Amino acid sequence: MRLAILLVASISLAQRYPISTLTIQDGLIQSTVQSVAGDASGRIWMGTQQGVCVYDGFQFRYPDTARIINAVRSMDADRDGNVWLATDRGLYVFSEDVLTPVTFDDGRPTSVWDVAIDVRGRVWCATEDGPAIVERAHLELLPELVGTSVLSVAVERDTLWFGGRQDVIMVDPISRTVRDKIAVGSAVWAVTFYGTDLWIGSDVGLFRFRDVLESMGARMGMVGVSITSFLKDRSGNLWMGTDHGAYLFNGSGTARQISTDEGLSHSSVYEMYQDREGCIWFATEIGASCLTSLAFLQFDRNHELIGDAVWSVCLDPLDRLWVGTDRGISVLQKGRSIARWRATDGLPSSVVRALASDVQGMWVGTTRGLALIAGQDVHVVDPLEQNYVRCLMAKQGQLWVGTNAAGAWLSSDGGSSWHRVMGLPNPRIYAIAGLDDGSVWLGTEDGLAIWRNGIMEVERPPKLPDARVLSILPLGQHHYWVGTDSGLAEIKAGEITHYTTENGLVDGVCYFILPGSEEDVWVGTNQGLTQLTSSGTNHFTELDGLSYREMNVGAALVDRQGFFWLGSYRGLTRVDLPLIPDRGLDHPIRLDQVKVFGQNVPTQDLRLAHHQNYLRFEYSAVCTRKPSALKFRTRISGLDREWNLTSDRHVQYAGLKPGNYQFEVEVADHRGVFGAQQAMLRFYIAPPFWQSLWFRLLGLSLVAALAFWAYSDLNRRNRLLRHEIIAERAQMMRKEAELRLMHAQMNPHFIQNTLNNAIYFAHNDAEKSEQILTWLSKMLRHSFNTMAKVWANCEDELDLCRNYLEIQALRFESRLSFECHMDPELSEEAIPSLSLQPLVENAVVHGFRRSRAKQLISVDIRLEGTWICVEVINPGPPLGHPFSHYIKDDHALGNIEARLKLLCGRRLEYSYSEGKHHVGFRFQPLDRAHRG
After folding, report:
1. CA-angle at 710, arms to 706 and 713, nearest 5°
2. How many angstroms separate the CA atoms of 460 and 791, rounded?
3. What's the CA angle centered on 531, arms 525 and 533, to 5 degrees?
4. Hey, what's the torsion of the CAs at 693, 696, 702, 705, to 10 degrees?
5. Helices (H), 550-644
6. pLDDT tens, 510-535?
7. Helix, strand, or coil here: 796?
């Protein structure tokens, strides 16, 4: 047997953190980002070579930057919300979106390299003319250092540190005198304190000053690296921006490099910033990169693994992590790949679905059998050869093997002999777990089985949410969790509690369960990782840093350091639970613009004329980690009884009546929890002049005069005849108005449903999409032609139904068939327009809602004596209520019946026979002169 172990420690690619990048394609004003900072509201400011732009996590905004021609080198925000910009043309400040230059008293500008704000709110600058402070809205140079060009400034421990062309200058901020100088011999771009030491970043590398100056580049693995910036994050790590990417140092060992391999847009990192949500921003040569969390470390085929689809993970006694994928096994040590195993190395198959470690070695379950890797040898287990192995468990000298179709197998002598476990409810095994007392839990296709002392006990639904048991977490003899295809069950002291999508789970498919603290468990699902606690749930997806949201069955473990290792279809993710950011942070919200008929109006003291009653409110919330998960609720007090929930960042109101109003908007995070912050605007719409008191009095006088004249005139006429004529005309107008209104209600309903079907297929099959659009065009043409008609031809209505059924047949494929019949002599007869298609749609929708079996829809228009009979037939179980229960005014059936009553004096008819529903109506043929 040939063994080939690929040692890749020296050439392996780095692991990957969740990093995204914003470029000019996303709205960045210019591609080279030289500086990044945040303001008091949490917005991210990015300085480029052509000005500055602001990002709220969703979109960019562009303040007035006309006077900033070239590079914005550095930025900082003060406690009052002002943003200070260091540029090659001088110092500028943004205050309430107004840009103001800050110069010397004589108006002379200077090139500014860096800006920093101390705890007292004083603004310090590193300029070509020397260190400076902002005093009385002007720059003032420090007297001792006039003419000394400095490149960087830092405020550390009540001391100012200026990085010069050759040294570091220590300045007392009170007396503004020089305390000391440290000769470095090269340009100093960054200075900071880390621990008790002064760290210096220069053109020639990293230095540490501890009584004497020490070069740190070589000992930290940063040879030939130029340091441009420092950042100390909230976890106590030191970040270094360099011309070789960013380096992360936690105080011990070497610094970890984060480069373009991990997702940085460019290797040149000019400046870094950590925002209020904990995200790390990198200003680079090409765009701004954002690291959303250090808690999630990703591995895939391009980063350490042999394959992307991770089906199993296991630790061996040497703390090496074995990862089973669709292309073989990768062995990781300290996050680096040290070995790989494939079918060419002796495994029965390269698709590895299960792993288990014991004293014999590493047991490997594949889709074509079981093998043992002992040292450098691979042994295939003969009794289980060619069996699809789904899960393994090695415990207390026993090895359990769960297969796809051959049940469970047990060996108690290291694999020398095997026997099949009997009494299982189903031979397909998804999960195996055991306790120290020797009991073993087995999850099968048809329920949970518990093996105690050689006796199998079977636990089937209805106690569990679903029959298919995919995961098991035993916490004791009387406390365990069971994950199924439709939810999670906690069994504790004989009591069972269900968790489904209706009470907390984001998805019911529970692929694995991991123990957290004493009060929570973690569940891997089809829609990500869910933390289930006594107070609610937290949910994590690839937006948080997972390699992919769809987990795999059993592909998870907790290692000895407390890291979670999670397998998915697109790689492996290591989760460091203590580093998961606080998810209860409020998101600042602001009202950006108010538009009246498309024109911007002030967002304060808003007073509008009576005709300015079409308003659009545009709002935004600051969220850099998961902006797409934000939800908003809006209302106008006094107008809306309830909040309007939406994902849109605008809302429109039309036809507002005169009066005082208050618009309110709030934002909720991905959990649906609304924060305490709110954006609000009070506004007033003035009444028109004809609603004023004097105009009303004048109007009342005129009305009284006219009423007197009318009364006198009516006395001269035949009152009875006049009243009869008025009553008849009013009745005719009311009937016509009702018909037009009901017809108008039908058109949007039918068009909307038809378009939804077209959109559904447009994303899946181009050929089907073309067919659908053809039929849709015919349906729309028919709709427009009958927009103002009460009656239509039977042939046209039947063609409309055929087009609709053709579209639905494409959607449901072989599950839907239909047949349409009409007596030939009825093709030109009139039928109430849009009365047949809703019946057909109702048959399709409710037919498939109540049954997943094949459906045959029959449409029949026939002549019975002097009556035209219309009938739609579909199979299905009997109705749960009388047919009248389903006739509602705001539904299609109610609309059709109301029109039939007005037009024909008839009602909808229903019957059920031989397993089929018959819905239709009948009416007398209409004289052609009365169609319209």
Report:
1. 140
2. 58
3. 135
4. -90
5. none
6. 999 999 877 789 999 999 999 988 87
7. helix
